[in-house]
Amino acid sequence: MISTKNKPQRIRYDIKIRRLQVAKIEDLSQSLRAITFTGEALDTFQSDGFDDHIKVFFPNADGQLVLPQIGERGVAYPEGVEKPAVREYTPTGIDLVGQTLRLEFAIHDAGPATTWAKNVQLGQEIAIAGPRGALVLPMEVNHYVLVGDETALPAIRRRLSELSQGSTAYVFAEINSEADEVPLPSAADVKVVWAYRRGAAVTSAHFLLEQVQQATLPTDDVQVWIGCEREQVRALREWFWNNGWDKDDVKHASYWNKGTAAYHEPHD
Prior knowledge:
The chain is α/β, with parallel strands linked by helices.
């Protein structure tokens, strides 16, 4: 169990909309594309949680980047123009001195964000807002269990990059095939299990749960984090809760919901 001094800490940020330009495009795997953005507005960007999420505003069908105004009554868009598609992503590769920020796009559907990421060109512009806040999980435990599908790989990769030598991380990642594997660099001792769908429909089976159930995992001095489809998250967290892990040690985030566009549930 995590001691009181290592309990998660909540941080709140002021919301600011930042315009950014594409500076670099890199394919990490068949289904994960990393895009690095640059912009002077990044000099005050802040993100302390490895699974923070920011809102990304994409150009509309006319190629216009229509941005809202943030006022006392919330968010308001200009009248008479098509609103942009807005999706949420985990910020990675943050360099405030160099004023760059990397986002990693799971190429898994035909939505507006995926279409944009597939066809993106250097110099194109987007905008971001947030993060609204962070839930900073403890770094002093010895063991970390990270469970997620393609949409959670950016957060998992960021967490692993933050871990220190001497700690152990157990990673369970659901992907379609070996072509979708990505590097998972870390100073920690990382043990990786890839759960392959092999062409099966996403959420057609509990691929991650099956792999987790077969593993021998620590139950003390451990932080468990789960990020994937909503129903998969529920099944995984229930299994951990019912098999020796304290509820306070199991954090989870529904990164998407089958049949629902632009869904993201805040982590618990």
